[in-house]
Amino acid sequence: MMNREPKQYSSGEVLAPPTERYTILGWLHKNLFSTWYYTLLTLVTLYILYAILKPSLIWIFTQAQWEVVVANLRLFMVGQYPKDQIFRIWLALDLLAFTVGLAWALFLPKERRVGAVLVIIPLLLASLPFISSYSRINWILFAAIGVAGWALGRWQPKKMRRPLIVLMLGYFPILILLISGFEPILKLVKTNYWGGLLLTMLLAVVGITLSFPLGILLALGRQSELPIVKTFSILYIEMVRGVPLVTILFMAQLMLPLFLPPGMKIDNVLRAMAGMVLFAAAYMAENVRGGLQAIPKGQHEAAWALGLNGFQTMFYIILPQALRNVIPVIVGQFIALFKDTSLVAIVGLLDLLGIASTVLAQPEFIGRQREVYLFIALIYWVFSYAMSYASRRLEVALGVGER
Amino acid sequence: MRETVAKVKTTPEQILSLSEEDRSAAIERGELPIVLAHEVHKWYGNFHVLRGINMEVYKGEVIVIFGPSGSGKSTFIRTINRLEEHQKGHIIVDGTELSRDVRNIEKIRMETGMVFQQFNLFPHLTVMQNITLAPIHVRKWPKEKAEEVAMQLLKRVGIPEQADKYPGQLSGGQQQRVAIARALAMQPKIMLFDEPTSALDPEMIKEVLDVMIELAESGMTMLVVTHEMGFARAVANRMYFFDQGQIVESGTPEEIFSDPKEDRTKLFLSQILH
Ligand SMILES: Nc1ncnc2c1ncn2[C@@H]1O[C@H](COP(=O)(O)OP(=O)(O)OP(=O)(O)O)[C@@H](O)[C@H]1O
Ligand SMILES: [Mg+2]
């Protein structure tokens, strides 16, 4: 804590450390061929890459029949969601673009990469040859609304602060309302029509959004001085962590009805969501607890000595530091949760993976496993990578590990 | 001939029998002590750390507590704002007795500020936020007022230009001065210091001591655990020598330095005054 180098110099004052400059050949020599065993390693690696990539690329570009993806694109994206209601999903996306655009202008004005995500990626998607013109227009609209949000934020930064916070807090309920509908304005769309990437994303978003606060509460409960709260938290955390997620999903599908009063029914998707949230919360609790324990006792004492009560000490002093320190772990858990949503296919839900099996069951696409699984793997990878990249940027922005 | 260990004149009953207004008035006039410790005992398990501490501090006095490592100095000063619980005896701060009653603890913590050896600034908040946090959330001041007071305090401790930096960007001496400003922002009646300069490099000790001397001269009631004998000589009204959980000797700096009565005090002074 003491005698740290100041970390925020204005840019002109300090020169960056000198960087070495190479020619391409020099770089190659230094990094790949500097000794005989480096050379050997480089050659072996190159050969393995060649052996894997050549047949893969040949297959991808000449033999694979991508029709199965193109023809079922809507199924993969939204499942059986009624065609005439898809505008609601676009509405949810547009609201997201607007929110991100605003947040970009207000919170991260220097972060150009947000712009790339908000503008370049949707425009790239819009230019894909095989998508419908309806989607094309909507992707362009998405980019335009994102830019509009950004412009509004630049123009009225002070006035837009409050609306932005309302939007950020309200986005989750609005999203659920939009997708599920509310009579009489928006037709109800039952959860068994939700499918594909839409369902995968909803499972992940619900799981992440709800398990986070629940996990914090459990972590605090575990440290509580009230014996009942403490015992309950410990029992809960240890029991859930001792059981695989699939088991919990099956329990939620098969056992939950036993506990509910007869006549009361919860549909499959909600059950799966509940299972995921309860599962993830236990792990979240342990991550947060690790962060809490790493905060030195002096921080509590300084807060108490100033007259802050237990809640204020936790809320203003301990939790912000604890959470900041465990961001990498938490994001890692979010990514795991996102990928774990694929387990709901086992209990019969039609998420991205579940849709894949129904597509493959269509007679005209029998034997197209490679294409289908490669496609959904790509989707999982893109989202997981995006999350881990965002978390690294966030760590840098918050100075995690520097304190 | 003076007694080496001060017997406290005041009994807890004397304070507690008065009405709240009468207590404050008497403390204000200097007739009753603002801090009274009466036969205070504390154990860590079987280990008897505080063995019958008696001390009375009147408004505006500066008290220096010193003694060998492990003698219970920190433990004692931390019982005064209940960072440690005492198990026997009475501690009465500004007319309020410390007990299990949470309201009393909250009241006393609002009236006492504490400065720690390790500064304990909040690393995720700026200097300004460190100072204004408690006034805003505990005293319920509006943000503008809290920031105005904070700025005055930063000027008083000599670092107004650091307001927007984070603690990690300051030197040790600057951090400790922020910690003093943070404690003062709550406008406490009593300031507790636990070895405020021991974690500092020698060249930074003076800047912190200067702030403390200025504070003492402004009339603040202060209890200071320190081995900075220059500070004691300059501003202390009384000094207490702790050893093995007891007060072995007390007196004015003059008495302690030129005429220590107890052998243990002499030995200890000869060691640290080298
Ligand atoms: N939480 C604790 N549990 C058990 N023993 C403790 C605890 N805190 C302090 N002690 C013991 O109590 C004794 C007094 O500690 P204290 O910190 O009050 O000493 P000190 O006079 O401040 O010493 P120093 O000059 O080293 O700061 C020491 O022997 C210490 O080991
Ligand atoms: Mg100590």
List the helices and strands and how they pair.
The complex is a heterodimer of chains A (403) and B (274).
Chain A: H1 24-32, H2 36-63, H3 67-71, H4 73-78, H5 86-107, H6 112-126, H7 133-155, H8 157-180, H9 196-222, H10 227-241, H11 245-254, H12 256-259, H13 268-293, H14 297-305, H15 310-325, H16 327-340, H17 352-361, H18 369-398
Chain B: H1 12-16, H2 20-29, E1 35-44, E2 47-57, E3 62-66, H3 73-79, E4 88-93, E5 96-97, H4 102-111, E6 112-115, H5 127-137, H6 143-156, H7 172-184, E7 190-194, H8 202-217, E8 221-225, H9 229-235, E9 238-243, E10 246-251, H10 253-258, H11 263-272
Parallel strand pairs in B: 3-8, 3-9, 6-7, 7-8
Antiparallel strand pairs in B: 1-2, 1-4, 4-5, 9-10
The complex binds adenosine-5'-triphosphate (ATP) and magnesium ion.
Question: How does this structure look, described?
Answer:
The complex is a heterodimer of chains A (403) and B (274). By secondary structure, chain A is mostly helical. Chain A has three domains: 16-53, no CATH class; 63-81 and 194-403, Orthogonal Bundle (MetI-like fold), CATH 1.10.3720.10; 83-188, no CATH class. Chain A is built from 18 helices and no strands. The termini of chain A are close together. Residues 1-12 of chain A have low confidence and may be disordered. By secondary structure, chain B is α/β, with parallel strands linked by helices. Chain B contains eleven helices and ten strands. Chain B starts with 11 loop residues before the first helix and ends with a helix. The mean pLDDT of chain B is 94. The structure holds adenosine-5'-triphosphate and magnesium ion. Residues 44, 47, 49, 69-75 of chain B line the site of adenosine-5'-triphosphate (ATP).
Number of helices of chain A: 18
Q: How many strands in all of chain A?
A: 0
Q: What oligomeric state do the depicted chains represent? A: heterodimer
By DSSP, the count of extended strands of chain B is 10
Radius of gyration of chain A in whole Å, from Cα?
A: 25 Å
Rounded mean pLDDT of chain B is 94
Strand content of chain B: 15-25%
